[in-house]
Amino acid sequence: MNLFGLRIPFAVAPLLWGVLWEIVGQSGTVFIIPPLSSVFVSLFELVQRGNFQAAAWQTLTSFSKGMGLAVVVGIALGFLMGRVEAANRLLGMWVNIFASAPLSALVPVLMLLFGLGETTIIVTVFLFAVWIIILDTFAGVSKVNTSLVEMGRSFGATRVQLYVKLIFWAALPEILAGIRLGLIRGVKGVVIGQLLVSVVAFGQLFATYSRNFMFDEFWALAIVMFAFALGLSGLIGKLEQRVEYYAGTRD
Fold this sequence. Notes:
The chain is mostly helical. Helix content is 79%, strand content 2%.
């Protein structure tokens, strides 16, 4: 990052925002923004509470189930659309519609279909994450050079071997990019599901803290969710960098 011609380390940016947050919080001009120092104190206390740990486990369970399903279905449909033109014509329009639609509006419909339990939250996470995984997988698969596929066939590769040992690895950078973006959207999905469906786990904590003006705890919980989403995204991003060379096999 450059500022007035000076190269500033990337870590300085969050420090500057933290200082600004602390100044605004200490001034008391915005009552919903407490000092960052008090937020971190509340964060330290929050993670030791039993209700937080139970909520974290329940949230992680719902998120993992929804994301696991989204990854499996997303990659499968992305492959199908990338390799079968009829499937792309049939599904492509709907995938793009749901990828850009305000999915929060569908939560009441999901409640009618699946009830007020964990199933609705899992489905919400799935719907938030799966579409971007489909689109990125489709983009990667469709970029695989046909001559590469023909080369595999000339060496006697079966259809399964072509998909598993050649096309999958050639499309892997885009698949991981889709999973990374899907993880971030999935985190939003699990919180929205918990807030709008049965108000459980982190959704219940968010609702309790906001209703009772407990903004230190509210922002501490928000930081936990941000850190969780960015941490997962960073891990997938590192994995993306390690497999970037597979993209060269498409040419």
